[in-house]
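Re: the request from the purification team.
They wanted to know what the chain is likely to look like in 3D before they choose a buffer screen. I agreed to run a prediction and write the result into the notebook, where they can find it.
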Amino acid sequence: NFDDQRLYRQRSGEDPEPITPAPDVERGDRYADLAITPDGERLYCVRERHTADGDDDEPTNTLVTLPADGSDEPSVVAEGHDFYSFPRVSPDGSRLAWTTWDHPAMPWDETTLHVATVADDGRLDDEREVLGGSGESVFQPAWSPAGGLHAVSDRSGWWNPYRIDDGEPVALHPAEAEFGVPQWVFGLSTYAVLDDGRIAVRFGSGGDYDLGLLDTEGALETIDLPDAYFPGSHIGTDGEAVVFVAASPTQPTSIVRWRPGEEPSILERSSELDVDPAYLAEPEQVTFPTGDDEEAHALFYPPRNPDVDEPHDERPPLVTLSHGGPTSETLPALSLGGLPSIQYLTTRGIAVVDVNYRGSTGYGRAYRDRLDGEWGVVDTADCVNAAEYLADRGRVDGDRLAIEGGSAGGYATLCGLTFHDTFDAGVSHFGVADVEALARDTHKFESRYFDGLIGPLPEARETYRERSPVHHAERIDCPALLLQGSEDAVVPASQAKGMIAALADIGVPHAYLEFESEQHGFRQADSIRRAAAAELSFYGQVFGFTPADDLEPVTLTPEE
């Protein structure tokens, strides 16, 4: 429950009742990633314990167990690591598997898979490490109905599926493909083991993903899904059928059910909005040369609107998108709402290139690690080179190039405006302007992320300053729009306000919109509509066109 962070259970027809005690510190005990024993009597989960406000100590993460009816307080069964995830109970209830990692690693850097036997009182005995460790990322342990343990590991350089026997882990299907995703949140699942031992998997690379069925001999069958649907990072099973969240370039995100031997069926769509496909820009996979004689990747969306004749003597302006994370990936999923809305821009004559810069996931470990020590440099260079590549080939107008992104993508946006002269405008959603300040004032999960992206503090302080746009704002000579949530605890509003103050000091045209009650990522429909309208108004002013929409204009200060 969000209000008090306690765990609750609810019997059919009855009100919810708490099963964890009220902590000494209000909302101080936070629970996640629950696993219930086969008999339904006990559960295991991750607990994060916070001390009093103003205390500089980090919260403490442990693995705890408690009776499902709340008749006893949670007891710690595993401790000593900075982070825990994926507690999973074997089908007979005799064993528990889970993963851990420690600062300064992130879970896509290195994690360790543990297994222990479960005693009668729920405590753990005979704990041992069975996979992972230094330089190896292990993802999503899961038990088969027969009691076999599976997990995804990148020990080969790609997140591939393994079975963990008594000896060495056995690779089930070695391939240059990703069967896992970066563990940014709890509860992710990219595969599910069926009762007959076969495994339904999400696999692929470079933005091209499929649903597959992996048999007990390691053969992988690709399953055809309608409307170019591809599975996301939530796959579940009842043992016979598979249910998963799926995306498509032309259809809204949906819940899909598939049973081997049958056709997939759509159970629920995230939107019933009926959009004529003639208005939808479908992505083109683009690979382009970039720095250090390497290549990077992107999805290019040309403008598309059947109500408007394409001018023959004019190329479209381009918005270059940089995804957040930065350890993440942009996918060819239909974007109608949210920020940024690709289709909102393409139907209004603006081309979009969505960049999977070096450091993105989906292209193997080596590509993912390219951002190590190079955040703000490599990712920004790839955004620059993507825009210039399209302009050089006549796909877009090289005199009307913008860059946009949120969070880490907002940081790339500000770096692109500050340290390069390719772009004519930029839009930053809750972007990072001062990386040292952020590194010193963020939550536990990301508090040492920057050690790998830039370097440890205080040793690398000068590098942090060199890569902070707020300290070099005098280099910016084009308009900027900054959008920010007032209650953002990940990238606080002070970051945007500091950047706006620096732009004001040098007289660069700018606008700042702060959205009340919004956090890291806008969720209220009114905020999203207002932000999208502000972007379009901004691009119209910068690129020299008048939007057909009835918009509330955004005011640039000082006026151009």
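For the purification team: DSSP finds nine helices and 30 strands in the chain.
Please add any questions underneath this entry.
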